[in-house]
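Anyone else keep sequences and structure tokens together like this?

Example one:
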Amino acid sequence: MKFLVISDLHGNLDVLDKMDDNFKKADAVLFAGDFAAFKHTETGLPALEKLCKKHDTIFSVIGNCDEPDFLEQIEKQDISVEKTLVYHEGLCFAGSGGGSKFTGTTPFERTEEEILSDLTLVTEQENQTWNNLILIIHNPPKDTKCDTIANGVHVGSQLTREMIEKTKPLAVITGHIHESAGIDKIGDTVVINPGPLDEGKYAWLEVSKAGDSWNVDSATLEQL
């Protein structure tokens, strides 16, 4: 399966039209949150509605620039993977929205414990093999190429990283840190921050099944 990986749209409707050819190539779209522009939460709903017209199969969470109750809007569109497990073509998707507490200037900032609480359906199942699981978490895990701000400091979640190390999902899709578009690994788990779609950045993830196991065939960063 070929996934178009995007995040941090921030109300930019024009860039969605520029991505039309990419939407056509994708089997599904993975969106890691921030529909709305910074301090303009009213831009979230038009962005959601336009994104949903671009592809029939989207898996999504909300970001720190989105109001917490915007979750209801993506649930209405049947694209949310927050606080649940969604199965599709043999793969499983789960997710958590919002960003870790930092500046206090965005509407959906959470503690690490709150972010992790959305994933209890994964973490509470001991001895479960999660090699078919793709996590979509707006706030990145700590100490990867995907969570470094401009001064070089890693600002991701340590608790999320520990959860990934324990559960060993196939892949983790994240965003939030604009200057840290990257692809990395935590153990065998591929971690992708595609960078902000608002700036024309996106990624591809291709996976396939061999026997009882799923494998990541390729992961690439792209720029419009």
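And example two:
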Amino acid sequence: MTEYVADLHDIWKIYRKPGTDVEVCALKGVSLRIRRGEYLAIMGASGSGKSTLMNILGCLDQPTRGHYILGEHDVSSLPDDQLSEIRSQSIGFVFQNFNLIQQLTVVENLEVPMFYQGVRPAERHERARALAERVGLGDRGDHRPMQLSGGQQQRVCIARALVNDPLILLADEPTGALDSKTGLQILDMFDNLHKSGTTVVLVTHDPNVALRAQRTIWLQDGEIYRDTANEQSAVSAMPIG
């Protein structure tokens, strides 16, 4: 088992503006290593490259050049079908706007990724129920997203991200759509997931959120200009279940 779950070396990402010959360099030679079990925050102003970096980390996009080793795989230039398979096996995503299927119940939303992984119906239903229980929604399994609060919907998203026991849990502004009290409860969940050994990468614009991580990197104009270890603040972590 390698020490690093993600190893990015000299990553460049260059986009061409549609209909023009104008090129935009979103990432410029980014090198980054993420240790197994690490809690990392990514910060930067709009246009700094943090969304592009997140997309590459999550295998949603590939670098123009450079190498990205995810676990034991070089995913830098894999064909789309292989990249999609590795993404489904190795990455968990938590989004700001939840991205839940409104017509499905909590349990059914949690079963969706397992359906595509070929998990048998009885097993995926049992696992989905257990995940709902894990994030404190054991009594909400038959509710649809519109019947849940914003914080409860984000708990479903976190449970969904854990379905594949991911190498990396990627969270993009996970408290952005929540009030401050609910946001703190969600951040407590990430603290507990990290304590249980999950590798967490969180994109945020809020320095107070970033301070909860072990380490913060700042992006500016497509480059890492600061990479620091955080002094662990005294945050009261709330049990997940």
